Amino acid sequence: MTPFDVSSGSGPARLVAVIACPSPKCSSPNVADLPHYWQSLPSESPLKAKYAPPARPKVSYWAAVGASVAGVLVITGGGVLLGLLLFVGRRRLGRGRVQGSAVAQAQRAAWESSHVCLACTGTF
Fold first, then answer.
1. Taking the CA atoms of the chain, what radius of gyration do you get in angstroms?
2. Which of 88, 31, 26, 93 is CA-nearest to residue 63?
3. Is 0.70 surpassed by the pTM of this model?
4. pLDDT in tens, 84-121
5. Which is it for strands 115-117 and 31-33: parallel, antiparallel or unpaired?
6. Do residues 48 and 42 touch, judged by C-beta distance below 8 A?
7. 3-class SS at 3?
């Protein structure tokens, strides 16, 4: 089997890529996009949980905002060193949230571009 098949139709011939399972035991061309396949599964299917997308993170910046407000209030109240520590600490809280969100977005993008072999049920 070639990696490309010629599509049939009334127009000019064009090449269409055929995706095959990369498993040496399988090599089946019966492959589907993972997100599309997951959406087509019935809700009671055990495969629905197996192929589920990664969870979206619950990003909340309220801790960073609260540390900023507390820092400003402490600075204006006379505790400059403690206020600066709180104000700078909020940056660390925000950075951790953003990095966690970026990792989750990368996992989600990888899931959205994945495929599932319908013969051996492997994902790639």
1. 25
2. 93
3. no
4. 776 677 666 666 666 667 788 888 889 999 999 988 88
5. antiparallel
6. yes
7. coil
